[in-house]
Amino acid sequence: MSSIQHLFDNNQQWSDKIKQEDPNFFKNLSEQQTPEYLWIGCSDSRVPANELLGMQPGEVFVHRNIANQVIHTDLNCLSVIQFAVEVLKVKHVIVCGHYGCGGVIASLDDKSHGLIDNWLHHIKDVYRFHKERLDAVEDKEEKLKLLCELNVIEQVANVCNTTILKRAWAAEQDITVHGFVYNLHDGILKDLEVSVESN
Predict the structure, then answer these.
(1) Of the residues 63, 64, 98, 122, which is catalytic?
(2) What is the pLDDT of residue 29?
(3) What residues of the chain score a pLDDT lower than 50?
C-alpha cells in the first residue's frame, strides 16, 4: 500500500504557517461559521472555490458535484442550499462552471460512461433546450464553452425555482443568485450577468 504520510505532513506545515500568521485563527474559526456565500461548483480538482475567490476557510460554504448541477431530486444539493439559506443566511448563491468541464464534454459524446450517464442527461437537456444556437457554432471548443455557460445559466434558474429560494424571497430575505464560469487557462472568473435578486 502506498503511503499518504505526506498529506499529514502537508497539513501540519499548513497549520503551523496559519498559526504563525494569526495565532487565533483556528480558535476564531471553530467558534463561528458566518459565510456570506454559497458556492455550487464542479467537483473538478482544478477549481478550488476559496482559493480562486481569494477567501479564507469559513468565508465560503461549498457544494460540489459533477458539472455543477442543481437537480430538483438531488437531496444532497437541496439540503446544502437549505442550510446555507435558512441557517447560515448567506447573501449570495454562486453557481460556477468551468471551461473544459469533463462532465460537459462527456455529455456530448455518444459513449456509455456507466452510472454517470444518468447525471449527464441533465446537460443533454440543456443542449436540447438550446440546440439551434449550439448547432450554429461550428468550432468544437467554442461550442463546449457555450454549453458550459448555458449549463450554468440553467442551474441558476434551477436554484431560483427551488422552494427554498422562493420562500426566502417571499420573506424578503436579502439573497442573490449568480452565474459564473471559471477559465482554467488564466484563473479568471467570468460573470455571466444572470444574477437574480427575487423571483
Answers:
(1) 98
(2) 86
(3) none
CA-closest candidate to residue 148, choices 121, 127, 119, 176: 127
Residue 85 to residues 49, 159, 164, Cα–Cα distance (Å): 18, 11, 7
Known active-site residue 42: yes
> What's residue 144's pLDDT?
97
Confirm whether 46 is a catalytic residue.
yes
Distances in whole angstroms, Cα of residue 77 to Cα of each of 11, 167, 174, 189, 195: 28, 17, 21, 23, 20
Q: Which residue carries 449550439 as its cell?
A: 134
Q: Is 44 a catalytic residue?
A: yes
CA distance 101 to 67: 7
Separation between Cα atoms, residue 136 and residue 134, nearest integer Å: 5
